[in-house]
Amino acid sequence: MSDLPEFKYSPNCYTNDEVFEKALPGESKTCQCCGEKTEYYRGMYARKNVKCICPRCFANGAAAQLFEAESIQNAEPIENGADRVDELIHRTPGFNCWQGEMWLAHCNDFCAYIGDVGTKELEERGIADEVFADYEERDEFDVEDVRNYLECKGSMAGYLFRCLHCGKYRLYVDAD
Question: C-alpha angle 32/94/131, rounded to 5°?
């Protein structure tokens, strides 16, 4: 995987199956942007049905430009960050969730997407109380319901982010 591009805002994208899909052994996919065979791929939001974009075409922005598309549906606002917004929505692969992803921000920059989590995974990492306290401040779903029903890849799923600057963990919650 060393020849694959890295993504500032999605550092675990090759190990998270909710970011890039991996072709089955012996199978390869053809990128709809560059026409090259690829082992890792995902689609993106576009007017055309775009289901197979390779990591390189995400990273260099070619897919976003060719298909006049964005790879991220929603993101928290940041100030004076046009270059960071461009990198996020045009050169970063999104992640799969129920209603469409919301990319979280902190310290006036977008956070790194860590992966899909439930309460169990947050407790195993020793960050459950910190994450739920931050979540409660945003006044979205009832925090006690989230704590009780949040399940990795479940009907109420959590998406964990980490600030690139101060290391604070943040949680986005989505439900079917």
Answer: 170
Distance separating the N- and C-terminal Cα atoms of the chain:
33
pLDDT in tens, 4-54: 999 999 999 999 888 999 999 889 899 999 999 999 999 888 888 899 999
CA distance 143 to 45: 31
Provide the whole-model pTM.
0.92
Cα–Cα distance between 64 and 70 in angstroms, integer? 6
- Return the domain boundaries, the chain: 1-72, 97-176
CA distance 134 to 14: 28
Whether 111 and 161 have beta carbons less than 8 Å apart is answered as: yes
Cβ neighbour number for residue 22 with a 10 Å cutoff:
14
What pLDDT digit, counting tens, does each position of 90-135 carry?
Answer: 999 999 888 888 999 999 999 999 999 999 999 999 999 999 999 9
Extended strands (E) in the chain: 21-22, 29-30, 37-38, 40-41, 74-75, 102-103, 105-106, 109-110, 112-117, 156-162, 169-175
